[in-house]
Specification:
The chain is of the alpha+beta class and about 425 residues long. It folds into two domains: about 170 residues, Creatine Amidinohydrolase, Chain A, domain 1 (3-Layer(aba) Sandwich), CATH 3.40.350.10; about 260 residues, Creatinase/methionine aminopeptidase superfamily (Creatine Amidinohydrolase, Alpha-Beta Complex). The protein is built from 14 helices and 19 strands. The chain starts with a helix and ends with a helix. The mean pLDDT is about 95.
C-alpha cells in the first residue's frame, strides 16, 4: 500500500480525535479450521485501513501530538521456529520504514509500554472485540484506575469506540481505494461471464462455483464472501451457499459472487437461464427487477439518502407485482401494509469497501462523492407460496451492481457485465 495513502488516513483520524487522546487497535487473530490447521488469514479491516499490514499478533498505538500522528507498532521479528513453518517475514526495521511507523517494539512489551502511554491522557479510542487479551487488559486498568491514581498514574476518563471515527473515514473512498474496488470488479465480471458461457442443464451448482473461483485465483484475488450459486428454487434463499444441487433445464440460476483485491471487495449478482433462454414467466419477473434497479441507479446522486433510494425501488417492485397479479391489492395498501415484503424482503443495497457490507450509518446519511454502494433489488417467489399461480413458484431473481457516487451523479463500476435479457441470453449462448 502507498505510504502517502496511509499517512493521509492517519492524519484524517487524528483530526477527528480530541487533544490529549490516544487510539489503540489490534490485528485480527489467526482463525483455525481444526486444531493447528489455519483458515486463510483476513486482517481486521480498521487495522488494515490504518496500518496497511496483513499479519496477526500486532498492536498499533496512535498518539495525537500537535495534529501530527505518532504511530507505534508492537510486533515480533520472525522466530527460528516460525521461519521453518511459515517462512521469513520482513524485519521490524523494514516494516517501520515501509509503513511509516515512528517506532516498532516487541509485541511482548506492549502491556508495560502502553501503561505509560495511557498515563495522563484524557481520552482513549479502542476497538473492542478483536483481541480478548487487550480487551481484558484495558478493563483491568479501568477497574483499577482509582488505585492507579493514588500512584501518580491517571487512566483516561473517556473511553470511546474507535469505530465511531473509522466508519466515517472509510465511507469516503480515496482514488487508491476506488481503483482497488474497480480492479476487483473487473475480475468479478470475467468470472460471471465465464459462468454464463459454461452453464448448461445437468451441471451442478458447484461446477459453476469452481469456474468463478478459477478466475479469482488466476488473477491473484480472493473471494470477497462465500459465493451463492442457486439454481431454481434455491435462488429464493437469500444466503444460499450449499451450491450442491443439479441445474435443471428451464430453471434460472442466481449467482452472487465477487472478488476481493488487497482487502477491497466488489459485489455482483446476476440471474440467468440455465439453458440460455428465459421463459415467459422468468422474463416478466426479470424485467420488473431490472426496471427497479435501473430506476434506483438513475436516482442516485449526491444529497440523496438511502431511504429515498429504497423507497423508489420498493415502489417500482410493488407496481410490477401488482401488474403481474402476484399481489391482488391497491398500490397504496401494498406500500402501507408492506405486502411487497413477501417477495422483496431486503434493503436495496449497502456500503462497499474493505468489508463487502462496509461500515457506515444508513439513516439520515446523504450520498457524497467517493462513496461506493451496491444496488441489488430482487423478487423471490417461494416454491411453497400457495397465494400465487404455480407457474410463478420457485422463481428467484436478483440483479446487483456496484455504484460510485460522483460529483455529477454516479458511475456504475460493473457496467460491463450484461444484464438486459437479450444481452444475457447472448452471453449464455456464446
Amino acid at each position: 500500500m502507498d505510504l502517502n495513502e496511509l499517512k493521509t488516513r492517519r492524519i484524517s483520524l487524528i483530526s477527528m480525535m480530541p487533544n490529549n487522546s490516544i487510539a489503540i487497535l489490534s490485528s485480527a487473530n489467526k482463525n483455525y479450521r481444526t486444531r493447528d490447521v489455519e483458515n486463510p488469514y483476513r486482517q481486521n479491516s480498521d487495522f488494515l485501513y490504518l496500518t496497511g499490514i496483513s499479519e496477526p499478533n500486532l498492536i498499533c498505538v496512535i498518539f495525537k501530538e500537535e495534529n501530527i500522528p505518532n504511530i507505534i507498532l508492537f510486533r515480533n521479528n520472525t522466530s527460528a521456529h516460525e521461519k521453518v513453518w511459515e517462512g521469513e517475514r520482513s524485519d521490524n526495521k523494514h516494516v517501520k520504514e515501509l509503513y511509516g511507523f515512528n517506532q516498532v517494539h516487541n509485541y511482548d512489551d506492549y502491556e508495560n509500554r502502553i501503561l505509560s502511554f495511557l498515563s495522563g491522557k484524557d481520552s482513549l479510542f479502542i476497538e473492542s472485540g478483536v483481541n480478548s487479551e487487550l480487551d481484558d487488559f484495558i478493563k483491568k486498568q479501568t477497574k483499577n484506575s482509582s488505585q492507579n491514581n493514588r500512584r501518580n498514574y491517571s487512566f483516561p476518563k473517556n473511553i470511546i469506540a474507535l469505530h465511531s471515527i473509522t466508519q466515517k473515514l472509510r465511507l469516503i473512498k480515496s482514488e487508491y481505494e476506488i481503483k482497488m474496488i474497480k480492479d476487483a470488479a473487473k475480475v468479478s465480471i470475467k468470472a460471471h461471464k465465464l459462468a454464463m458461457k459454461k452453464s448448461k442443464p445437468g451441471m451442478y451448482e458447484y461446477e459453476l462455483d469452481a469456474e468463478i473461483k478459477y478466475i479469482f485465483n488466476k488473477n491473484n484475488m480472493h473471494m470477497a464472501y462465500m459465493s451463492i450459486v442457486g439454481g431454481g428454487k434455491n435462488a429464493c434463499t437469500l444466503h444460499y451457499v450449499k451450491n450442491n444441487c443439479k441445474l435443471k433445464d428451464n430453471d434460472l440460476v442466481l449467482i452472487d459472487a465477487a472478488a476481493e483485491n488487497q482487502g477491497y471487495a466488489s459485489d455482483i449478482t446476476r440471474t440467468f437461464p440455465v439453458n440460455g433462454k428465459f421463459n415467459e414467466e422468468q422474463s416478466l419477473i426479470y424485467d420488473v427487477v431490472l426496471k427497479a434497479q435501473e430506476k434506483a441507479i438513475k436516482f442516485i446522486k449526491p444529497g440523496v439518502t438511502w431511504n429515498e433510494v429504497h423507497k423508489e425501488t420498493v415502489n417500482e417492485i410493488s407496481r410490477g407485482l401488482i401488474e403481474l397479479n402476484l399481489i391482488k391489492d391497491s398500490f397504496e395498501n401494498v406500500i402501507k401494509k408492506e405486502l411487497y415484503k413477501d417477495f422483496f424482503m431486503h434493503k436495496t443495497g449497502h456500503w462497499l469497501g474493505l468489508d463487502v457490507h462496509d461500515v457506515g450509518e444508513y439513516e439520515n446519511v446523504c450520498f457524497q462523492p467517493g462513496m461506493v454502494i451496491t444496488v441489488e433489488p430482487g423478487i423471490y417467489i417461494d416454491s411453497a407460496n400457495k397465494n400465487v399461480s404455480e407457474k410463478w413458484r420457485g422463481i428467484g431473481v436478483r440483479i446487483e451492481d456496484d455504484v460510485l457516487i460522483t460529483d455529477k451523479g454516479n458511475e456504475v463500476i460493473t457496467l460491463d457485465l450484461a444484464k438486459k435479457r437479450n444481452e444475457v441470453e447472448y452471453l449464455c449462448n456464446k
